[in-house]
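User: Hello! My lab partner asked me to get a predicted holo structure for this protein. The small molecule is calcium ion, SMILES included with the sequence. Please write out the structure tokens.
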Amino acid sequence: MYWTLTLFFASSLNACVVAVEQESSKANDYLTEKWGKWFDCDDFNHDGILSMEDPKIFEERYRALENLSDKQLKTIIDKMNRLWNAFFFTNKTEMSKDDFINMMKQRFESNTTAFNEMVRAFLSEWCEVIDINGDTFLSEEEFLLNFAAEKHTNIPQNKQLFYMMKPLNGRVPNVDIITYYLRFATEPDMAKQDIIVDAINSGV
Ligand SMILES: [Ca+2]
Ligand SMILES: [Ca+2]
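Assistant: Hello! Below are the structure tokens for the protein in complex with calcium ion.
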């Protein structure tokens, strides 16, 4: 169903008023299964609950880096915590996988266009967190560090995913990272290739 309206998008991620074509779609099994994989990827301490304990795991890895200034570290931690609170914990402070999938389903089906833009905003801010030197590209080092911080320790598979993203001169533009993950989080058509699904299925 399509219609034009003014969306008031009151997320603390990006409070904005925009005129867009709104599309509302039903979430199919393929998409809800991908959200389940997303939950598993972000449950960094593997306790079956998404909570603020998970970004603390992420934070520990970055705290251990010797070449980050206190200011850089504070920026990374503050952004990560704000991002998680803004996207995941708008109504509660922790959630199960079912809670997460239901939240995503409700957001997707109530306004698919707004959902897609919200995920894009999340991914854009997430790239800002892990693009440590702020050059709008992820180097292999930045990419692998993020996976290490998220306790995804299959380094050969993580590297393979990086090279599937077609780096140029050893770097992938943040905009390409956003495109790949946006497809993963929002695309219901399983006929379209999704390298993130392929990577997760192969052990990332
Ligand atoms: Ca957890
Ligand atoms: Ca970078």
